[in-house]
Amino acid sequence: MSRAELDRLLESKRANALLAWIFVAFVAIVAVVSLVRGRLLWAIFAATVVVLSVLPAIALRSALVMVPWEVLALAALPTLARAFSPPVGGIATYLAVAALALIVAVELHLFTAVEMSYRFAVGFVVIATLAAAGGWAVIRWVADLYLGTGFLGSEDALMWEFVASTVAGVGAGLFFEGYVRRRLPPERLPEVAR
């Protein structure tokens, strides 16, 4: 198969939907595996990715209505890395959170009347990622305070987590602008998103 044939195949709505559903299935498996392994928080997070990913298909009653598979790949890869390789967990967590914010931004842009400017889209993803990182820090602080867990190492480590989440958010925001808004061919989009 030539490169041009492969590009045409990946630009069809059916191929996009198939690839998107495959990534959703992988993340659903991660949710189940995480639940079985006792990683409740990560299981809930992976389940949230699944729910947000299938929301357009459910709302518009068509299995072909999915966000671009590349966006779901961005959400699935750090989720898989976090679930199966804990040493890269911290980095993968913030990439996954940024990807979750990216899914929300893409769904708002493609499936609603909302049109995001470049600055707003990038800012939305960055702020959503930072808000999630801040919320997670507060949860860990409360657990440390009342349960004596020791989740928070030091203030220095916490600040580096915020830096990592900012970088992940900016990267996801730039991906949104660079790929989804500028390079996504209209024939890949569902009729409702055109």
UniProtKB/TrEMBL annotation:
Keyword annotations: Membrane, Transmembrane, Transmembrane helix
Transmembrane segments: 18-36, 42-60, 91-111, 118-139, 159-180
Keyword Membrane: yes
Superkingdom of this protein's organism: Archaea
Name by which UniProt lists this protein: Uncharacterized protein
Organism, scientific name: Halococcus thailandensis JCM 13552
Species classification: Archaea, Methanobacteriati, Methanobacteriota, Stenosarchaea group, Halobacteria
